[in-house]
Amino acid sequence: MRAGAAFLLLGLGLTACASPQAAGPVDATPAICAAGGTEMARVELIFGLGIGDGNSGVSEKAWRGFLEKEVTPRFPDGLTAYDVYGQWQHPERGVVRLRSKVLQIWYAPTPEAEAKIQAIREAFKTQFRQLSVMRVDGRDCVSF
Question: pTM here?
């Protein structure tokens, strides 16, 4: 993904960015979780796998290395990652279609967790010459 363009999901261009959930719940209504469930923050990070030069891509080996080096040390309790297809409107090249990864992490919202999430985004942009990593925040009831 490159900056200046919105990632397209379900035919809708999404360009807004909400403030991190660490600031507090979306509304004042307490979450009603199933027995044993706990309300947790969820972040979804969407990583485009095209490299900034436009001619190559992030390999599965490079992605796994990124997870091992940058993500797992920051969130050792677990994560979910999966393959997706994405597209966005490049300001100069039109619609760009690319393989992508979604990374989901459930966590207790703290300033430290927010700093770790931002560090992951910055590391990916630097390592793979990206201009952006899309972030989507939410809250869920979680039980194990």
Answer: 0.76
